[in-house]
Write a structure and sequence with these properties.
It is built from five helices and eight strands; from the N terminus they run αββββββαααββα. By secondary structure, it is α+β, with helices and mostly antiparallel strands. The chain folds into two domains: 1-36; 38-176, Immunoglobulin-like. The strands form two sheets. Strands 3, 4, 5, 7 and 8 form a five-stranded antiparallel sheet that branches. Strands 1-2-6 form a three-stranded antiparallel sheet. The longest helix is centred in the N-terminal third of the chain and has 35 residues, at 2-36.
Length: 177
Amino acid sequence: MECDQNIFWKLVPEWLSALGTLLAVIVALYLAHRDRLIRCLATATFDILYKSANANPPFVSIIVTNIGVRSFAISEIGWQSGIFKKRFFSINPPEITDSAKLPHKLTDGEQLDWYIPLDACSKIFIPKIIKGRMKYFASLWFYFLRLDIRMTTGKSFTFKIHNNLKKEIKQLAQNNH
């Protein structure tokens, strides 16, 4: 019996080293895969930019940040909504005054800001949203409203928007309806 226990205890370090090697390979493969992924973070809020003492127009602020190490180019921004069938409403950058032109490349840690005047929102994409989309379950439709960032690679990211912006878009939609 003692002989069997001695053999067992002599094999424990070999098993532990094999397990450590396997875990090291798994971690190395995970880290290599993670570096190839496109990772970004985006927020959409309702803000008032202070340009001058007299005129401070309200804006929709969209900020996209590259939080990964891989650079990517943004081809389109817009809104997405729907429960089962997702619908995309594009924001046309040439009509946005204080914003970067698309497509725009973001490198590691770089941030890109878009500021869309709220009155331009009510003229440009609010009518697109209203047209045939909000007849039924409007509050549920606004609950599923998301910011959609599309890359030139064909990949798309969706992000929740802030509640203050949801309220403003809902109020604009009700006023235009």
